[in-house]
Design brief:
Elements (H helix, E strand, L loop, with lengths): L7 H44 L3 H6 L12 H9 L2 H30 L7 H13 L4 H11 L5 H5 L6 H13 L2 H9 L4 H12 L1 H17 L2 H6 L8 H10 L1 H10 L13 H12 L1 H10 L3 H8 L4
Helix pairs in contact: 1-15, 3-15, 4-8, 4-11, 4-13, 8-11, 8-17, 9-10, 11-17, 13-15
Length: 310
């Protein structure tokens, strides 16, 4: 019994529609992704353009996605006549210290809970799940901060968020997916749990740790409501609260500008409230943008791998 081979022309005819469909889908995908990227980029370009455009162009509404009459007077005003650097310092302290403390508490919590031999790990995990689903509320949290005596301090901006349950479960699930043979080999060689965690588990978990660290850093950097609630002095304002105050007190800034704020000098005409807000917003995103490229390659990989197990 012989089987006739299909003619080459038929093979080609079957392959062409599939190749054509793939090309069409690729073109559609590129068009959609380009459109979504432009939606995200254009507002940023608009804000940045306002921050370096002349005051008359900003007031007249002639600034879209490209600066009109480039000037740096508005940025100079933000640097010299507002509390930008004080707010930046507070945000950096809260973000760096808070991320370090949160990573320490997250790792030291997730590692024991990832071990089936740890007694009570199911009950403790259940407590974390309950606390993640049911939030006590703003008033109890405020009362705890007041009782601890850390109101209007950096600790008030850090300790209430020392661990986020969702981030802890991401790290825990990642630890559970690591090969147990490696840790067993370390135990045979005489390594204790702390040595195993530091020398073996953490180096193998760099993607998920970098991802969680980025999530913590963004959370600390972007938080303004709790900073507003737990701090009272202007010297404790973080960057987001500083921006919140500028946006909501734009009328007061407009009055100061119209009256000729002391020390502003000849460049007053280039400064508008819209331009000042745009400059402050543009400058505030520089630190987080500068840090993101170093760990963005771990972002998707860390989240997807750490979320495999439920």
């Amino acid at each position: 019994m012989t089987v006739k081979a299909l003619p080459n022309s038929k093979k080609i005819s079957n392959r062409i529609p599939r190749d054509r469909t793939e090309k069409i889908m690729s073109v559609i995908a590129y068009i959609v992704m380009t459109f979504l990227a432009l939606i995200a980029i254009f507002p940023c370009l608009h804000v940045i353009s306002k921050s370096v455009s002349t005051g008359t162009a900003v007031t007249a509404g002639r600034v879209l996605f490209w600066p009109v009459g480039v000037q740096l007077d508005t940025i100079k005003y933000v640097f010299t006549k507002t509390d930008f650097f004080s707010a930046l310092k507070n945000s950096l302290i809260v973000t760096v210290a808070g991320t370090a403390i949160s990573m320490f508490t997250t790792i030291t919590t997730a590692y024991p809970l990832s071990k089936q031999g740890f007694k009570g790990h199911r009950f403790i995990t259940l407590l974390y799940v309950i606390s993640m689903v049911f939030y006590g509320g703003i008033v109890p949290c405020y009362m705890v901060v007041v009782t601890m005596g850390i109101l209007d301090t950096y600790w008030a901006c850090i300790l209430p968020f020392a661990i986020v349950q969702f981030n802890m479960f991401i790290v825990k699930n990642y630890f559970e997916g690591l090969p147990s043979e490696v840790e067993e080999s370390a135990a045979i060689d005489g390594a204790n749990d702390v040595r195993t965690l530091i020398s073996i588990v953490l180096p193998m978990s760099v993607p998920v740790l970098a991802t969680v660290a980025l999530l913590y850093a963004i959370n600390y950097w972007n938080n303004y409501f709790h900073v507003m609630m737990y701090t009272t002095s202007s010297s404790m304002r973080t960057m987001q609260l500083y921006l919140y105050d500028i946006i909501n007190n734009s009328q007061a800034f407009a009055e100061n500008l119209s009256n000729g704020a002391k020390g502003v000098g000849n460049y007053l005409e280039n400064i508008t409230t819209e331009g000042m807000v745009a400059a402050a917003v543009s400058l505030s995103i520089i630190p987080i943008i500068a840090a993101y490229p170093f760990i963005q390659r771990y972002m998707v990989h860390g989240i997807t791998v750490g979320s495999v197990k439920g």
